[in-house]
């Protein structure tokens, strides 16, 4: 899988995201569309951005019974997204059904990655509310292994976990890592961050970068800096 920078397009309307993408004249960045934009603008926004020549990671984090996820994934595959995701907590049956739904008649399918435990879930909450007693680190690695066994391509994880995921699940298992910040930039609400260069060193396959690019005075320059540091 090729290394790439994915821009998290966390905008709330079609107009905002398209005017942001209009700034890019010479390159067509890989973009992440999340729930907010998808629910606000609908599948048409995916078709429109795709038509403009961008690759799309549709970050909807599916989690439901296997049959429902299979049918929903079939719709997403027909939208021609390049990457999408689900919660590994849905178990192997759901993940296998997702792959079945995503696989097109010609055998191709978007990259499918799993969310293990959300970074907003602390070990304490996992124990007290979800009744999962193990250390969060082993839960994350176990869910990653479940995803691999079910045939998924990789996981979303912190850049700090990417190395271990590769050790446990193999180097071809994709790590998609948010929480990236420039060495001289604002951290914002992220806690454990890494620079694009550090993410490269540690072996992330894709970095997801939002505000350091979308809120920059010159987003195109910030994107180029990310690519330069991460892809080289
Ligand atoms: O603006 P920023 O670079 O923090 O954006 C990171 C993106 O990655 C956001 O879309 C955020 O929802 C997503 N994300 C994250 N941490 C996770 C999972 C996803 O920041 N653990």
**Helix and strand succession?**
EHEHHEHEHEHHEHEHEHH
| Euclidean distance between termini CA atoms | 16 Å
Give the biggest beta sheet.
8 strands, parallel, barrel
- SS elements, strand count: 8
- Provide the gyration radius in Å: 17 Å
Oligomer: single chain
Q: Order of strands side by side in the largest beta sheet?
A: 1-2-3-4-5-6-7-8
Mean pLDDT: 96
| CATH-defined fold name | TIM Barrel
The CATH top-level class label = Alpha Beta
Shape descriptor? globular
Helix content: 40-55%
Structural class: alpha/beta
Low-confidence stretches: none
In short:
By secondary structure, the chain is an alpha/beta fold. It is built from eleven helices and eight strands.
Notable characteristics:
single chain; 232 residues; alpha/beta; TIM Barrel; eight-stranded parallel beta barrel; 11 helices; globular; binds cytidine-5'-monophosphate
How would you portray this structure in words?
This protein has helices at 14-21, 35-41, 43-51, 66-78, 91-102, 123-128, 136-149, 159-169, 196-202, 211-214, 219-230, and strands at residues 4-8, 30-34, 56-62, 83-87, 111-115, 154-156, 174-177, 206-209. The protein has eleven helices and eight strands. Helix 4 runs parallel beside helix 5 (91-102) and helix 9 (196-202) runs parallel beside helix 11. By secondary structure, it is of the alpha/beta class. The model has no long low-confidence stretch (mean pLDDT 96). It has an eight-stranded parallel beta barrel, surrounded by six helices. It has a single domain (4-230), classed as Aldolase class I (TIM Barrel, Alpha-Beta Barrel). Strand 6, helix 8 (159-169) and strand 7 form a beta-alpha-beta unit. The relative contact order is 0.14. The two termini are 16 Å apart. Bound molecules: cytidine-5'-monophosphate. Residues 8, 10, 34, 119, 156, 178-179, 190, 208-212 line the site of cytidine-5'-monophosphate (C5P).
């Amino acid at each position: 899988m090729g290394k790439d920078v994915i821009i998290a397009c966390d905008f709330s309307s079609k107009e905002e995201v398209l005017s942001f993408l209009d700034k890019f004249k010479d390159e067509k960045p890989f973009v992440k569309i999340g729930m907010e934009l998808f629910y606000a603008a609908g599948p048409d926004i995916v078709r429109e951005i795709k038509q403009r020549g961008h690759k799309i990671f549709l970050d909807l984090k599916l989690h439901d019974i296997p049959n429902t996820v299979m049918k929903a994934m079939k719709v997403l595959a027909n939208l021609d997204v390049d990457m999408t995701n689900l919660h590994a907590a849905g178990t192997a049956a759901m993940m296998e059904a997702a792959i079945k739904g995503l696989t097109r008649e010609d055998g191709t399918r978007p990259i499918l990655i799993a969310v293990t435990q959300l970074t907003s879930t602390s070990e304490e909450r996992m124990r007290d509310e979800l009744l999962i007693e193990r250390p969060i680190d082993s839960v994350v690695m176990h869910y990653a292994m479940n995803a691999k066994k079910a045939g998924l391509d990789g996981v979303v994880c912190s850049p700090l976990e990417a190395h271990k995921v590769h050790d446990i699940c193999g180097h071809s298992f994709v790590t998609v890592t948010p929480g990236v910040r420039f060495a001289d930039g604002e951290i914002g609400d992220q806690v454990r961050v890494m620079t694009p260069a550090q993410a490269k060193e540690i072996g992330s396959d894709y970095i997801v970068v939002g505000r350091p690019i979308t809120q920059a005075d010159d987003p195109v320059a910030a994107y180029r800096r990310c690519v330069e540091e991460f892809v080289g």
